[in-house]
Amino acid sequence: MIQIHPAGRLKLAILASGRGSNFDAIYQAIQDGRLNADIQVLISDKSQSMALQKARQRDIPAYFLDPGAFARQTDYEKEMVGLLRKHQVEIVVLAGYMRLVGQVMLEEYPHRIVNIHPALLPAFKGLHAQRQALEYGVKFSGCTVHLVDEGMDTGPIIMQKVVPVYDDDDEDRLTERILEQEHQIYWQSLQMLAEGKLYIQGRRIVTKL
Ligand code: GRF
Predict the structure, then answer these.
(1) Which of 22, 49, 175 to mutate to test the pocket of ligand 1 (most atoms within 8 A of CB)?
(2) Domain count, the chain
């Protein structure tokens, strides 16, 4: 069994492409003392990302890294790894980061990149997970925090939360109800890491108290 992170304050990077409500929830958990971590840096692949603005307001070092400026994904990721090293990042938190993570990042941060997905994996991977759940007709969906591997939404699962789907739900309502739970399980998962409680066993993550 491999311990994912020894007990101690986490040095996080947030990678975000959009509005950054998961970033907000993690930031707030740190401010309130619920999460033993520091956000060392925020990086976005979108210049207009709200998350970038929010990071600047919070005095967190914030970078727009333009994928279009690099010929290959590996070059983009090498630049990113340079920034992560510069800011002494130990754990990379994907919070609405809309691109696949490649080999360069995975080799630099093995078992150290986490993601949140708005469905109960392995159901409804990829984009528009809430719409997929509605269209399929499931009665329960939810959200998943997981480690990132080379697949899309396939890595070992840290935590999941079930959310009911109601007959009168539309995509917005379901998305909103799932998001509320995302904002809980993301910081809780990170806090488990900070407490050194999470171990990998095959593709399972187990908790040792
Ligand atoms: C969330 O629904 C998350 O599960 C998904 O992307 C969305 C990001 O939202 N990966 P936000 O930018 O954190 O508000």
Answers:
(1) 22
(2) 1
- The CATH number linked to 178 is 3.40.50.170
Going by alpha carbons, the residue nearest to atom 1 of ligand 1 is 96
Indicate which atom in ligand 1 lies nearest the CA of residue 17.
12
DSSP string, 138-179: -SEEEEEEEE--SSSS-SPEEEEEEEE--TT--HHHHHHHHH
Active site members: 117
**Residue span of the structural domain in which 72 resides:** 2-207
| pLDDT one digit per residue (tens) for the chain, 209 residues | 999 999 999 999 999 999 999 999 999 999 999 999 999 999 999 999 999 999 999 999 999 999 999 999 999 999 999 999 999 999 999 999 999 999 999 999 999 999 999 999 999 999 999 999 999 999 999 999 999 999 999 999 999 999 999 999 999 999 999 999 999 999 999 999 999 999 999 999 999 98
